[in-house]
Amino acid sequence: MNKDEDKQDKQDDPNMVNGSIYVDDKQDEDPSPPDNPNNPYGFLKFPIGFNPEVASSGLKIRRDVQRCCVVISRGVYENLLFFPIIQLIKDRYLSVQIDVIAAFRGKQTYELNKNVRWADAYDLDEDFPDPAEYTSMIGILKGRYYDMVLSTKLAGLGHAAFLFMTTARDRVSYIYPNVNYARARLLISETFTPDNINISKGRYNM
Fold this sequence. Notes:
The chain is an alpha/beta fold. The chain is built from eight helices and six strands, in the order H-H-E-H-H-E-H-E-H-E-H-E-H-E. Strands 3-2-1-4-5-6 form a six-stranded parallel β-sheet. Helix 7 packs parallel to helix 8. The longest helix is centred in the middle third of the chain and has 13 residues, at 131-143. The N and C termini lie far apart (77 Å).
């Protein structure tokens, strides 16, 4: 290596500007606006010009739905049968955002649906799901703050607990038409009892 090049490497960069942002301590934060002394929510410390986000009266009176998650089990056939129901939900709640949790094969069908915002793949029919995937999916659903979770899987205690841990306001699901429904009904807001365990036999009436 050339001695001149080695000497040049050891010199300071003349274009480097050394500031005092991170030298002494953490970066200085921007000053916050002054608090509003006339704010009725004084204990929350809202600055002037800012208002707390409160739910509209429609959410309380009409039990309106702004965020809905649809949990659909099984394959492509059952997912295609659910397309008209998604349109009914959209017609009933005009400003609703609909997300879908489906199997890996069924997820692809909802990528073509204009009414679906997000489609996530998760195997609902797995009897012993992986703990990491299970808790990760629950964390995702809790973080989206759904008003309603609608499931087409026949709910026993395990699936009812899964829906309950999403902390959605309304939890709607099918339940088994036998003795397995008893505990599931405690964790679900609204239940439907099908005539047959295989609800896809009802075709579009599922």
